Amino acid sequence: MADAVFPEIRMRKRRKDEAARMKYRQTRAISLRDLIMPIFVKEGISGKKAIASMPGIYQFPVRKIAGEAGAIYRSGIPAVILFGIPRHKDDGGSSSYEETGVVQQAIREIKKEAPGLSVIADVCMCEYTSHGHCGIVKPIIGSRLSVIGKKSRRRPDAGHRTPIFEVDNDATIEILARISLSYANAGADIVAPSAMMDGQVKAIKEALKKGGYPGVKIMSYSAKYASSFYAPFRDAAESPPQFGDRLTYQMDYHNSDEALLEARLDIGEGADMLMVKPALGYADIIYRMKKELDFPLACYSVSGEYSMIKAAAMKGYIDERKVALEALTGLKRAGADQIITYYAEEVAGWMESESFDKAQD
Ligand code: PBG
């Protein structure tokens, strides 16, 4: 380290003007190539439908999905991640793996319209189960939850109290594998398991290999924390748990070593990319994962992160564009190669309207 101190060293020289700032800039500005746009596709609606808790984000019917995805692609964003809201939900989430399921149809439509767009499909059961959990739910023997239904809704389990149900890990990963295979059949480039079940990557990898899709990649939500930042998404995807919470499968946000272990296990099971979620408040996890594992890494700037910036901007408390770009650049600086963000399409619009460096002033 330099021994020199003030006045020999003057740090403000580096910030004197834009030319100086550019010279010393360490993290390159966000590029559209880094961004992934989430899309919600819903069965049984005829036009796009606004999501109240996420201003600017919509649910699309299958027949409008190609147009939307095409516009995203033409704006310069290379990838989308799809979430489906089916007409029919049941305890076993059976509409999740149908060949004519809502996401499967959407993938086919998008691939016809924009074959170059990378299509990532989120693999989870919560949008498809009537109880809203990310897997197959079974009552714990001896608990008072004999039937999972209306009765249990009146006595919600707080998670940290005596559990009355559990999500059956091994039964669930078989279904996640089946969902993934049906997405691969429809033409998905990448499947992204988000259920936080043990062994999910391994089960999916084997199913894809056996099914004849060794080239379909797996982006694993390796470190997905049980987070209150997901609340607006659960409105958008119509997937809130009807009882209990997700604390028995998603990670405890007090932990970071565990995230590294999850990620190492996923690499061992055959993941092609890792992901950290949420992003805001988890930059330390992104940083450690990139540094310690040096593996392709995405992060998911989740619904709550988007809606907080939106809401504050709508009130005039902050400058939306500046805050959004600062937050996204921070995720890159932390080490994320790719960022899933509901701002992706808007960032593309900002970039088109003026030079990006100018936008970042
Ligand atoms: C499905 C899933 C969730 C999100 C992505 N995939 C919700 C959850 O786990 O409850 C959250 C995304 C967001 O908040 O933007 N399991």
Tell me what you see in this structure.
This protein is an alpha/beta fold. It has a single domain (31-133, 168-360), classed as TIM Barrel. It is built from 13 helices and 12 strands. The chain has an 8-stranded parallel barrel, surrounded by 8 helices. Strand 10, helix 9 and strand 11 form a beta-alpha-beta unit. Helix 2 packs across helix 3 and helix 8 (257-269) crosses helix 9. It is globular. The model is unreliable at 146-160 and 357-361 (pLDDT under 50). Bound molecules: ligand PBG. Ligand PBG binds at residues 122, 124, 126, 134, 194, 230, 233-234, 302-303.
Offer a concise description of the structure.
This protein is an alpha/beta fold. The protein contains 13 helices and 12 strands. Strand 8, helix 6 and strand 9 form a beta-alpha-beta unit.
Main features:
361 residues; alpha/beta; two-stranded antiparallel sheet; 13 helices; 12 strands; globular
C-alpha-based Rg, rounded = 21 Å
Total of helices:
13
Order of strands, widest sheet: 1-4-5-8-9-10-11-12
- List segments where confidence is low: pLDDT < 50 over at least 5 consecutive residues: 146-160, 357-361
Give helix % range. 25-40%
Report how far apart the termini are: 30 Å
Structurally, the number of domains stands at: 1
Q: What fraction strand?
A: 15-25%
CATH fold group: TIM Barrel
**Helix-strand topology string:** HEEEHEHEEHEHEHEHHEHEHHEHH
**The top level CATH class name:** Alpha Beta
How would the global form be characterised?
A: globular
Q: Mean pLDDT score, rounded?
A: 92
The CATH homologous superfamily is termed: Aldolase class I
* Major sheet summary line: 8 strands, parallel, barrel
The count of strands amounts to 12
